[in-house]
């Protein structure tokens, strides 16, 4: 398959209600041409609704949906230049693999020979050439997934939509499939929107992640941005584990300096001057914390007591109690070990320190 | 917006113009008014007078609407679609109301005009964004809603107005009260309810025994499920009642036997003595109807319960046993509570069926009058009291709706049994011994009893006069079938096949469409469709009959006495068959299949034809066959609607029963059973057995 023209996707002020129930409140979303953007959020946050609005399976209650330079707000799904990979794959059980993949071409009235050729190409690109005459129930789950992808990309759509495409696969296969999808997407350069509730998956495949909550966009940015510079406690805790600690902003400017208890830490995240001297919440990733003996005074740390300890192979996970707060941290096996009940000191080392501005 | 988009947005100007032209054509060449004697038996001048252009009539309304729409002076107005929708629907409604007011009965071209107005209305709605701007689905929904309004809601409302208004239109709010408290109504109601509750309990108990027997006690009687799934479907009305008469009736086998032993000439008594026994009509009345209904509805309850019994996860019983519960405790505290929703469901289903049953009380009721038969007797014969019939109809409808609502709202959602599709491991615990004994003996006895009854139906047609003269004869068959196609049973048999063949595909289509739009689409008015579908599940045939008589005996829709009304009553009476098989088939089809098709650039109409219909084909076929078969056995809904020309099999049999000609009645009944069995077996061959048992 060849690299194709891709389009920008925009949602302008989109509201979607079902009866009295408003599931999307005034969404503005800009998805760059050729990017893979993930919609991430807990179930019921409206991420699938956004996908279906782009597909045309739902029409917005108000607002506009723009694909490329065309306003498609009122066009139905069959009139839009998009393709979708469904969570359940939605492969037609009464058709063969070849018929499934060629379905959209047939609907467009493309001649049989060309159809055959293009079906072969599409199946080839997912590594399934030769399976044309099998029925869907003769394929494994992973193969079905690939057929679904082939069926979507054969139409050379301006936008590819993925609705939790990997949720029916086991974890090993999931890892491989997400790499395959990412590779295909980059080869074809097609704008893709990908819905998932799995943050690992989102971080692994995306150019851009849109975190959603209660029908609104909580934050949009690159995976790294979201992980290291969340703008809310929700995003901080949703994107991986985070310890939320109170601290004071003592210096702003190029770098921000924060004081937690007696410990001063530096972070890359710039803060406005208005925050100076204020107490704010700070999200600290477990890998930014480490333990040292209680008597170690070479670096300032937070005095704590070990409460739980779990050996998980590559590392040891600890929960420690500092003041009345539980902290969670990971330390590599081979470093100094502590026992439950022992006193220790928690060190804080960047990166992984994210002050959360705002309320 | 570019040009291509614009043309995609306005796809439907052309069909609208075409339809307007079709409307004009129809106006010219097809009669507008209803013909009292039908198209083929009216005189030339009668037909000529029926043409729209011969007189001033309601066609002026539809014509002017057509003309306005063709010209569309509002074309560039931003609410053009709204104007067009409002104009076309109000045109259709006012044709109906003004025709009613002018007492003008509408005919073929009127029907076409109304349909065209609805189509124009639907397209305008689609352009306004109804159902995501989908013209095909919008049209389907509009047509469904219109036909439900005309053939379900309108007739039922006529029943109510019959009770509340006198014939001259005076409002008589007390009439309903007077009618309800009038002599006999209370007793009839009490009879109906007592019968329904008793039959509900007995059928449920028997069905529970059977299902425990066939799932948990022995696998030897595998055919039981199959036979029970077929019996209620292929048994014509009256037939069970008749077989009970043959066995238990005044001249029945039991009476004869007892008489031969203990009668005044009996074996043990000796000639000349009075004997201990004389003929008795004990089977007529409560116990006869009770027995017949229990026989008729036990299989239905069984089909419901056996599904539940077999989907209980054995693991829960194993869990109970590991916690030191005995077999009896496990059954009482685990198994039975799990079945409780199923038991309640089966009970209510039997109650609803008993309330609606017309055939059995007709044959066996004697003095024990119930609502369904009283409605009939209020209209036929000397009484001709429509208001009383309507009152009884309302009572009957309310009670079966009530039972249905309880079943649906209260129990329908309380099913503990989840079908996951995963085979669950483990083995069922043995049932307590006494339950095994009861279930086994009840089942075996009842099977034997059923076999004897059905045997008597088959044999009853081959003897001169059951009870009096057991000489084998073919006379009944010759009388019915050998005197030429114009005599005996042939006319009614062929009429039945013809009506059923016309009605069945329409019934299936209507049912599947309703199932589709109510389960897959969100639209304004879905509640109405849902509600009407629900009514059609609960509405007793007799109530359909009385409401159709009342609604379609006057203008604007005067179709009483025609074949059309019988086919229509078949459609709306049997619609649940289509709805049910549609819903169960659709629940197996992932909704995203259709969405996948849509995102693959297939329009909704192509999606229906390439995805939905092929996947629904087995459901479609079974819906067609079952509505065909159900039409053949429908009696209550059409008993008021048939005429000499439109006599069908069931009404013919009823005539024979009323004449006391049981030989011919059972003989005809067995032919119907065989006909229906052949049809079902043929279908099984094509679409497989499992689907039939599910339907």
What does this structure look like?
The complex is a heterodimer of chains A (359) and B (695). Chain A is an alpha+beta fold and 359 residues long. Chain A contains eight helices and 20 strands. In chain A, the strands form four sheets. A six-stranded mixed sheet of chain A has the order 6-7-8-3-9-10, with helices on both faces. In chain A, a hairpin with a 2-residue loop joins strand 1 and strand 2. In chain A, helix 3 packs across helix 4. Chain A is elongated, with a radius of gyration of 25 Å. The model of chain A has no long low-confidence stretch (mean pLDDT 87). Chain B has 695 residues and is mainly alpha-helical. Chain B is 72% helix and 1% strand. The N terminus and C terminus of chain B are likely disordered. Chain B is globular and about 95 Å long. In chain B, strands 1-2 form a two-stranded antiparallel ribbon. In chain B, helix 11 packs across helix 14 and helix 19 packs across helix 23. Chain B folds into four domains: 115 residues, no CATH class; 251 residues, MetI-like (MetI-like fold), CATH 1.10.3720; 231 residues, MetI-like fold, CATH 1.10.3720; 34 residues, no CATH class. Classes of the chains: A alpha+beta (359), B mainly alpha (695). At the A-B interface, strand 5, strand 6 and helix 2 of A face helix 1, helix 26 and helix 27 of B.
